Amino acid sequence: MSSIGVIQSRDLSFTSLASQIRECKRLDRARQIHARILTNGLKSNVFLSNLVIQMYTRCGSVDDAWLVFQGLEQRNFFSWTHIIAAFAQTGDFERAISVFETMPAKNTVSFNIAIAAFGQQGKVGRAEEIFVSMEFVTLVSLNSMLTAYAHSGYLSKAKLLFNSMPEKNVISWNSMMHCVSEHGNLSEVKRIFNQMPAWSVISWNILVTANAQRENLEHARTLYNQMPEWCLSSSNALITALAENSLLAQATDLFNQMPWHDIVTKNAMIKALAENGCLVLARKFFDSIPERVLASWTLLLQGYVENFELEDAKIVFDSMPKHDVVSQTVILRAYAQEGYLEESKVLFDTMEARNLVSWTGIIQAYSLCGYLEEAKYMLDSMPEHDIVCWTVLFTAYAQKGHMQEFLTTVWNMPGHNVVSRTATVVAFVQNGNLDRAMALFDAMSERNLVTWTTLIVANANGGNGGHALELFWAMILDGIHPDEIAFTGALIACDHIDLGWSYFVSMSYDFGLRPRKEQFCCVLDLLGRMGHLDQADDLIHSMPFEPDLMAWGALMGACRIHRDLDRGERVAKELLDLDPGTAHVLLAQIYATKPKNSKNPRCSK
After folding, report:
1. Cα(85)–Cα(95) distance, rounded to whole angstroms?
2. Which of 1, 201, 270, 378 ranks highest by number of CB atoms within 10 Å?
């Protein structure tokens, strides 16, 4: 008889069974315990069944927990609460809400779980309805509502509730800090952190993650090293942030220094390698994981899709043990982007379940392939809509230049918000109608970062540099922090080098942003246009990444404008490895600008 997990007959006392269930943390062991319970006729014992539901949840099999719940002839309050909590803890908030809605009698515990679940789904209005209807509100209830506001970005409501709470614990403070961090206000996050009467590991994790996500990586690393105890979540957040900023070597070093890893860490490394184009290493890392979850497969799939390796993506998709709406939507969009509409339709038609994401995916497939009437038909066929599916369609109309259909779709939307109005601004800009875009912008009562950056960049590219810089500072005065795209627009708008340098330096010193290739290339272009070729040469050799075709091309173009043949020949050697054709064309243009009485050194005997 196997030594693992077999319950001997002498162990079948009620107390012994309960103890074994509570201590079980392995799925194979859990199933053996459950089998013995069924064999010995204890299925109808509600107390033991409730413990089994918890056991399966703890062992990572909510499906088994759900089968136990469905098989109960009698259910008590704990049965309902345990299964709702099981779905909520594993992120299946739709099923948690569905079970909650059918629960015959609800109390404070189930209400608290439902508030959290609705909050995670972004259904804050429904969470508020439950919260207001509660006869007895506990600190847990207040924290659940506060967390719902934090998750959905309702900063004003979160602050109002937080300030009115008669008592607060570390969960309350962490929720408020998380909500503020989601709005990118690092100084406010730090202020709340310093006001806390006590910190938990989660408090430190929020602070480290907030800095990492805002690309304040040096400070994030300092805070990480100051943590009183090692935190897996902070390590995962820092690895992800380093990878997203192309600091793959640092991400790998941090991974190797960690005392242990979970599947989130390993998935972060797969994502890091794939996003940086290291698909071979990503595949090797993926193959080294003994127990892969669906997210691991999906991240590898996403990596191939984002790097336009559709054949490899198809191989991964076909090899997956199972598919969910996320993986199906990823491959669906890949098919659409490659023009494989038939494959997209077949996949959509065979999906067992469809939600807003899958419907939006097929609308996008038709839209990207130019079948806008079919895309509109799919939108009309959807059982429910959200702002994303509408945005996909009217964006497609705008990109194809069908402005009448675009405007009709926008005005027919059931509700307008900053997203739809911003999309309209973007559409006008894309179709060359900057005046109408500015008129709509001026009439908007609320604007987001995309609204501002769209017009900053549009004015900069359109030669309205002064107006672009005015918009940049108006955005800051409006309380919106610029991102890298906004700074790119500002740098394009600059007409002299001192002004450009001030914006470039301000990115990191004033706003905690790490300049990327786009911003470096803007400065290179500005230096080149102003004739500061020595400074441009120094900058391109001191950048924190290898110069690409765009960078060398900017310097080569400056050499042509200012007739710097010697420097142009040196730059051409760098360009030859990246794009020989472009190198020869630009070098020929430089030779063509030389005075006719100047000798071409390549032609002299």
Report:
1. 10
2. 270
Spatial distance between the Cα atoms of 382 and 307, rounded to a whole number of angstroms: 31
Return the SS3 of 449: helix
The CA–CA distances, whole Å, from 570 to 349, 575, 578, 599 equal: 57, 9, 14, 18
Q: And the tokens for 499?
A: 């002004």
pLDDT mean for each 10 residues of the chain (605 residues): 39 69 85 83 80 86 87 84 81 79 80 80 81 85 86 83 90 87 81 89 85 76 83 82 78 86 84 85 87 87 88 92 84 80 85 76 81 83 76 76 75 70 83 86 87 94 92 91 92 85 87 84 83 83 76 77 75 68 63 52 40
Helix, strand or coil for residue 201? helix
Label residues 129-144 b or e (16+ Cβ within 10 Å = b).
ebbeebeeeeebbbbb
Nearest by Cα to 67 from 91, 97, 108, 35: 35
Residue spans of alpha helices (H) in 7-45: 14-23, 27-39
- Tell me the three state secondary structure of residue 530: coil
Six token digits for residue 380: 């009309």
Place of tokens 């804050």: 124
Predicted TM-score (pTM) of this structure: 0.49
CA 483 to each of CA 200, 454, 601: distance values in angstroms, whole numbers, following the listed order: 31, 12, 46
Q: Is 482 helix (H, G, I), strand (E, B) or coil?
A: coil
